Structure formats: C-alpha cells, structure tokens
Amino acid sequence: MADLTLSHVGKVYADGTRAVTDLSIDIGDGEFMVFVGPSGCGKTTALRMVAGLESITEGEVRIGDRVVNNLPPRDRDVAMVFQSYALYPHMTVRDNIGFSLGLRKMAKAEINRRVEHAADLLGLTEHLDRKPRNLSGGQRQRVAMGRVIVRQPQAFLMDEPLSNLDAKLRVQMRAEIGRLQRDLEVTTIYVTHDQTEAMTLGDRVAVLRGGVLQQLAPPQVLYDRPANLFVAGFIGSPAMNALEGVLERDDDRYLIRLGTQWLNIPPQVTHERPGLAARVGQPTIVGIRPENLQEASTAGQADGTSLTAVVELVEPLGADVMVHLSAGVPRPQDRADLAEAVGEPGEVVASVQDETPMVARFTARSSVAVGDRVSVAVDTERLHFFDPHTGMAVWKD
Q1: Is 120 helix (H, G, I), strand (E, B) or coil?
Q2: How far apart are alpha carbons 133 and 368 in whole angstroms?
Q3: Cis, bond preceding 274 (omega within 30 deg of 0)
Q4: List of residues 6+ apart from 234 with CB closer than 8 A
Q5: Three-state SS at 122
Q6: Rounded distance, CA 7 to CA 67, Å?
Q7: In 119-146, which positions are buried (b, 16+ CB within 10 angstroms) versus exposed (e)?
Q8: Are 209 and 252 in contact (CB under 8 A)?
C-alpha cells in the first residue's frame, strides 16, 4: 500500500482544451478517496493521469516515494477498474481473474491461490469455470474487481464501475466495494458522478467542476459546510434551495428578507458566521435543504421561523413526499426589488415565472395538494449563506 499525491497537476490537450487545473490532493495510505462532479469536470482525466493513461501537462504525481509522471502504466503498480467490464469472452472467470498474473510468469500454484482467494472474497467461487456471457452484470463487475485484487497493487483506481448496473445492483455492489476496500486497506481513488456513491463510500470526497477542485472534505463536512453554491447544490438530493434575499439587522438580531417574507437568523448561526455582519443591507443567498423544510400546523411568520407558500407539485416517494413550492421569492436578477420589497407578512406576490422555486421534504402523512396555501416551518439553525457574486459561503470576515 502507499500514499498517493497529486501536486499542482494540470492537463491541457493538444487543441488547447484545459481539462484539469492546479489539482493538489494528498491521499493517505489505505484511504478511500472519491472524485465526484458532473460530466466533463475532469475527474476521469485526473484518474487517468494517475494511471498513466493520460500524459501530465503540469505538476507531479507521486505513488509512495516515486514520481511516476513519466512511467508507463505497467510500472506504476496500480490497478484500474473501468466502466466497461473489459472481460475476455472466450476465457473462464478463473482465467480472466488470473490473466495478468500469467503475463508476469507467476507460478501456477500462486496464481491459483490468489484467484481462489479473490473469488472467495467476491462470492465467485462457484462461478470460476463459467464464461462471462453466463454471468449477470453484477457478477461480471465482481470478476473485473477480482482481476484487480489478485495483482495486490499499491492503489486501486475505479472509473465509474457501477454505472452499467441497475439501481438494485448498484446499491448491492456499492456496499461490497466499501467492504472490500476496508478489508483490503488498499489506497483507492473512485470516480463517480453519483453523489450518493460519493457520500456513502468515501473517507474524503473531492468535488470538481470545470477541472478545478471546489472542496475536499469528509462527506458530512461537505453536507454541513459546503464551501460554495456549487458544492451546496451538488451534494444532497434533492439539491439545496438557494433563495436570494437581503440581510438586515435590528439591534443584535439578524434576519434575511425574502421578497415580502423573512426568516430570523438564530444567534448561534450569526456567531458561527461573523462574515454576515459585513453583508447587512446587501443581497445574500440563503441556502435551505429540503429536509430542513417541514409542513407547519400553524403559521410562524411572526417569529420568522416559517414561510408561506403555494404548492405547485407533489411527488409521493413512499417514505416521504417531495413538495414543490412557490413562496414569492424573486429570482436573483430582481435585486432592486429584493432590497425594497414591501407587502403584508406572508403575502405571496410574485408569479411562478418571476420567483425562485423551492422543494421541501414532507412526511408521508402529509395531505397537501396542488394549489394549497401552506405554512412551511424552516429549521433556521441549519441555514447556509452565500455571496451572490462569488458563490462562496459566508463564514469569516
């Protein structure tokens, strides 16, 4: 096993396209690191540079104590699992798993020992003499992983290995990959666009956008303290609601005015974010996760703990209900209106086309219907704040 370090790594293709910019990450021995982001964010390119499948334009990649920038893939002592299974159809499972060991002229007895050990770990023992065409998608992915395990490399590199599986198999294989990595304690980089995979698998998660690292942190930190609006919207499902309002201060009390409504900001929230003091009177984006919005039995606008909204769409999901709402909060481009908004408390004045939509996660017991006017309780202790111009989270001065 080994540490793996990317220092100021960049990738520019021959046509001038920049795929990765100044990427610096230290991955500890045995750590499970996840690269996550939308298509085209540079996560796979970064992985391929570690593997040696892409040249490195700038910076340095170290595996253990070796700089591997100019080493061919076979000399880097890493093993890669691809999105496609890349199995040899004419070979048995046993031969597929042990193929790379045969190329190394390893003794047959050792090959058999390693293959059988990997098959036992992956639940493939009874399938060793079958061909890939006779296996399910999940079993084929296990074979691809077995081929990696038998090599006993310094690092595993996994490029969206579950994307070809159906939803049920994805959940099953995700759990198996996590278990295997913990058992084997192999340094692992896992690439995915699925934030659920990232949150459930990674010891730490690197969120990328446009080839630039946005935030690197443990999953819960990404959820609780997103560094910017992009991370806030990407981590969590459904995405965080982002509403632009105006920050106001009344003596020692802060509030965020959202159109004709407002939310009080609890003292502990302002204490954690001293940077809010400098934003008084300025447009500020408040982030509210859907799970921090609940159906209220009584209106709480008087104490700034709820919003009045109209139900636009109801999506029952069994355990809970996703409720799409309009609360009369103008869209960000209407900043002049935001600063001068007037009206009766709780009055929804904007049309749906002119306002920012919201999504709330209500309990399955909710009986709300499209067109209902509802009071939505807000967990104001879990509000997030962002600069609307830079998108950065507001914390310090």
Answers
A1: helix
A2: 49
A3: no
A4: 36, 37, 38, 195, 207
A5: helix
A6: 11
A7: bebbebeebbeebbeebeebbbbbbbbb
A8: no
Instruction: Assign 65 to helix, strand or coil.
Output: coil
d(CA 118, CA 297): 56
Instruction: Walk along the chain (397 residues) and give the pLDDT tens digit of each residue.
Output: 679 999 999 999 999 999 999 999 999 999 999 999 999 999 999 999 999 999 999 999 999 999 999 999 989 999 998 877 788 999 999 999 999 888 888 899 999 999 999 999 888 999 999 999 999 888 888 899 899 899 889 999 999 988 888 888 888 889 988 998 998 899 999 999 999 999 999 999 999 999 999 999 999 999 999 999 999 999 998 999 999 999 999 888 899 999 889 999 999 999 999 999 999 999 999 999 999 999 986 544 557 899 999 999 999 998 899 999 999 888 765 444 433 433 333 443 333 446 788 999 999 889 999 999 999 999 999 999 999 989 999 997 5
Query: How far is Cα 212 from Cα 23, in angstroms, rounded to an integer?
Result: 7
Q: Which residues contact 264 (CB under 8 A, 6 or more apart)?
A: 253, 254, 255, 303, 304, 305, 380
Burial class (CB in 10 A: 0-12, 13-18, 19+), 308: buried
Length of the chain counted residue by residue? 397
CB 209 within 8 A of CB 39: no
d(CA 193, CA 216): 15
The rounded distance, in Å, linking the Cα atoms of 237 and 196 is 8
Cα–Cα nearest to 57, from 29, 22, 25, 105: 22
Q: To the nearest 5 percent, what fractions of the chain are helix, strand and coil? A: 30, 35, 35
CA-based radius of gyration for the chain: 26
